[in-house]
Every structure is written in structure tokens, then in C-alpha cells.
Specification:
With 185 residues, this protein is mainly α. The protein is built from ten helices and no strands.
């Protein structure tokens, strides 16, 4: 498979038309970056990111495992979550951002990438096996998706996504939507 500008644009448009979560995702992309940066968000906003990460699979992620992971996040103190997200929004170093987020209960590198995506969708994209696999099949990544992605894995993935987005003349949100749809083919 080759990632081209026309393929990415077409699949991103398909995502917009076909994926049931698109409207709420776009709303959150429009609202959460400023809210997270300013600290003007509630518990449900932070919780939404965690739930979105797992629920975007529309039932394909095991329900019991999803609930346990969401409950783990729910054990965090909200003020700690707020302070972490506000700090992450103003911290330039990716590894430090991920380290701060993964210090929260129920947040691994993948969920941290979802937070980063909603903190700054122009600079970050969510990490998942589907997206990684499509990039690998397109020759953008050499290794298969790691069992437990590290910060270094996310850095490599993010660099490849940014490079692809630049080459394909699209933003990371468009690239994400295209990768999600390409995985379904």
C-alpha cells in the first residue's frame, strides 16, 4: 500500500462520513486544547479522553478490560489530573509529557498519546496498533506494533506520522482519520 495525498484525503473524508464518533471527536478537538491549556475543564472532559481511546473501537476492545482500565483512571484525584494536564500542555519535552501522564493511574503510553492528541492535535497523534500497522504496511515503520509501547516507540511513531503528514500535505488529524479507515480495508 502506498500513502498518497489523494488516498489520505479520500479515506479521511470517508472517516468523516462513516465513523459514528467523528462529530464528537471534532467537537473535542475544537474545545479541549484551550480548555486543557487553561485548566478550564471538568472531570468528565479528562475522563472522556480515556473512554474515547478504548471506545473508538466500537465494542472490539474487550468490555471487561475496558471497564477496568477506565475504573483505574477514575481512582485519580481530579486536582492531580488537572495539574498534570495543565503542566503537560505547557511542557515542550515529549518524554516529560508522557512521563507525567503515565504517572496517573490507568494511563499508559497509548492513553497518554490520546491526551497529547487532544492537548495539541496539530503536534500529536494518538498511538494505536491499527494506525501503526497501516504505517508499517505503507513502509513508514519497520517493526511490528510493540506489545507495550514505550516513549521511544511513540517518539518514532510520531516522527513518522509528522513526516508523512508533511509529505502528504495534511494535518495529523486528517492523517489519523485516513489511517483508521485504511486499516479497515
Amino acid at each position: 500500500m502506498e500513502l498518497t495525498h489523494s488516498v489520505v484525503q479520500a479515506r479521511a473524508e470517508e472517516y468523516q462520513q462513516e465513523e459514528p464518533l467523528y462529530t464528537v471527536e471534532q467537537e473535542q478537538i475544537d474545545l479541549l486544547p484551550k480548555a486543557f491549556a487553561d485548566g478550564e475543564f471538568g472531570w468528565r472532559d479528562a475522563e472522556w479522553v480515556v473512554r474515547w481511546y478504548y471506545r473508538r473501537f466500537l465494542g472490539e476492545f474487550p468490555n471487561a478490560e475496558r471497564r477496568e482500565l477506565e475504573e483505574q483512571f477514575g481512582r485519580n484525584d481530579f486536582e492531580t489530573v488537572r495539574e498534570t494536564i495543565v503542566t503537560v500542555a505547557s511542557t515542550p519535552d515529549l518524554a516529560e509529557r508522557v512521563d507525567r501522564l503515565t504517572a496517573l493511574e490507568g494511563v499508559d503510553v497509548q492513553v497518554a498519546s490520546a491526551f497529547l492528541f487532544f492537548v495539541d492535535p496539530d503536534a500529536y497523534v494518538v498511538l494505536g496498533e491499527r494506525e501503526w500497522t497501516v504505517l508499517r504496511e505503507a513502509g513508514e515503520l519497520d517493526e511490528p506494533y510493540p506489545d507495550s509501547p514505550s516513549v521511544a516507540d511513540y517518539e518514532r511513531y510520531l516522527e513518522r506520522c509528522r513526516s508523512a503528514a508533511d509529505r502528504l500535505e495534511c494535518d495529523l488529524w486528517t492523517l489519523y482519520r485516513a489511517l483508521w479507515r485504511l486499516w479497515k480495508e
